[in-house]
Design goal:
It contains 19 helices and no strands. By secondary structure, the protein is an all-alpha fold. The longest helix has 39 residues.
Length: 491
């Protein structure tokens, strides 16, 4: 018999959220940690990749319903507290270190407002995603949906004239996901080059320029994506998560203890271009839409995902608090001297170098995790074509598979070399693919599903109004932000 849900006051809800996180970190068993790493902590990448590589041939003989059933049965369910931990772990990444730069671009008042507004809208749109996917799974009696298939089903469930656009909607979402992951990989590549340059400056005198380091580190990334052992990657990821917490704690301590600038000397607001760039950087840091549906599909009680004190609301709320703290105090500590990543402002003493070395390792190892979604989305189509070709051996398929991985790394290298600054790459990724996936698509598909069922109720009308607001705001940032960033790069 299920325990009825308790209603919390605001203060009790915040305490409840903090307690969930602390209990999860303290009492997580080894089995939970491995489950956490394999299925959720890395954006459900491993399970998707294993589905492509390990079970592909074995399930060809099964019918669609049998495949869905076998896939769902392989998934063990997780509790709400582990879902909360993984949501925060997925959202708290290297993007956090670019938030102070966003405050410099927009001003400290505008920066705080952008974080609060985008945090609220992101949480709202994540809840819309969960609502849409749950509704479509129920009416179609289908297995849990991912983002792309949710877009397909949402378009099919709408007005008759636009149902034929269902394949296009799925292609748009999957393309945006690939572009987002490619952009994240580029940011990781640039981050590694920046911090490797810092370490070399500390230990040696003859240091190559950053531009020279871009091709030098390419073989290291190619070697990394050759790794096929998911177990080894899981242990690396577990260690990386622990080290990231240490690095964050040290950086927060540095921001609090560093002599601060006078607030009167810092701009509260800059200009529209700066605000748009800051919004892109902050949305890049807040990006987590790709993991919401896999996370909800794994929960014992999916209903705990939504609500004022659900996993999404509490998780996004706490991430917003952390980013607001990092952005405001980072800008207050270094003012207009804030660099592309706040870690580059750390002093080159032993503690600062230790933090930079730790983050270099964490981000470098995390690059592989960010590549896997691209492989998982594109490789099955390539594999299908190879399977249809006569006389293609297993060895040839394996060679093509690794060549495909390496080609992704080369594309990342070329893009990173062409746009070698985090201050340019992060806003560009956030304001384009990030904005589409975070605000535009969830609101659009929610509108397509529920507008045909129009009811003259205040709640329903408010929902539709918020959908339109999110779409308009999102498209403004996408169009204006893309044009502004491209013009900036050209000049």
């Amino acid at each position: 018999m299920e325990t009825p849900h308790r209603r919390y006051s605001i203060s009790e809800g915040l305490q409840h959220g903090v307690r969930r996180i602390s209990e999860g970190f303290l009492h997580m068993t080894n089995a939970d940690r491995m489950l956490d790493l394999h299925d959720i902590g890395m954006h459900n990448v491993q399970s998707e990749y294993q589905l492509v590589s390990k079970w592909d041939e074995a399930e060809e003989a099964l019918g669609p319903q049998q495949r869905k059933k076998s896939f769902v049965e392989r998934k063990e369910k997780i509790s709400s507290k582990f879902a909360l931990i993984n949501l925060m772990k997925g959202m708290l990444g290297a993007g956090c270190f670019s938030v102070p730069l966003a405050f410099k671009q927009s001003g400290y008042v505008a920066g705080l407002l952008i974080i609060l507004v985008l945090g609220f809208l992101c949480a709202l749109c994540m809840i819309k995603l969960v609502k849409c996917a749950g509704y479509l799974s129920k009416i179609n009696q289908s297995a849990p949906l991912d983002y792309g298939n949710m877009a397909y089903k949402a378009t099919q469930a709408s007005y008759t004239p636009i149902r034929k656009l269902a394949p296009v909607s799925r292609m748009l979402v999957n393309t945006s996901l690939c572009v987002l992951q490619l952009g994240i990989c580029c940011c990781f590549y640039i981050f590694v080059v920046y911090h490797l340059h810092e370490l070399l400056e500390f230990f040696t005198h003859d240091v190559p320029s950053r531009a020279t380091l871009f091709p030098i580190v390419l073989p290291a990334f190619i070697l990394l994506v050759s790794l096929s052992s998911m177990r080894a990657l899981s242990f690396v990821s577990l260690g990386g998560n622990f080290l990231m917490l240490i690095a964050l704690a040290v950086i927060m301590f540095q921001l609090l203890t560093t002599e601060h600038k006078k607030l009167a000397d810092l701009p509260p607001v800059t200009d529209l271009g700066g605000v748009v760039s800051a919004a892109g950087a902050i949305l890049y840091a807040l990006e987590g839409q790709a993991m919401v549906l896999p996370l909800e599909n794994r929960m014992k009680k999916p209903e705990d995902m939504k609500g004022p004190f659900g996993v999404l609301s509490v998780g996004v709320g706490m991430v917003v608090v952390i980013y607001s703290f990092a952005g405001f105090f980072g800008f207050l500590a270094y003012g207009n001297d804030v660099q592309d990543s706040i870690t580059l402002n750390l002093p080159n003493d032993h503690l600062g170098i230790f933090v930079k070395a730790v983050l270099l390792f964490v981000v470098y190892s995390g690059f592989l995790i960010q590549v896997f979604p691209i492989v998982a989305m594109i490789w099955p189509a390539i594999k299908k074509k190879l399977r249809n070709s006569c006389g293609v051996s297993t060895t040839t398929k394996r060679v093509v598979h690794f060549a495909f991985r390496y080609s992704i790394v080369v594309v990342v290298f070329l893009l990173s070399y062409a746009i070698p600054r985090l201050s340019d790459m992060v806003p560009l990724v956030g304001v384009t693919a990030g904005m589409l996936l975070a605000l535009v698509f969830p609101s659009l598909f929610h509108l397509l599903i529920f507008l045909p069922q129009f009811e003259c109720r205040i709640g329903f009308i408010l929902d539709i109004f918020l959908d339109i607001v999110c779409i308009v705001i999102g498209m403004f940032f996408v169009i204006y932000g893309f044009i502004t960033n491209v013009q900036h790069l050209m000049h």
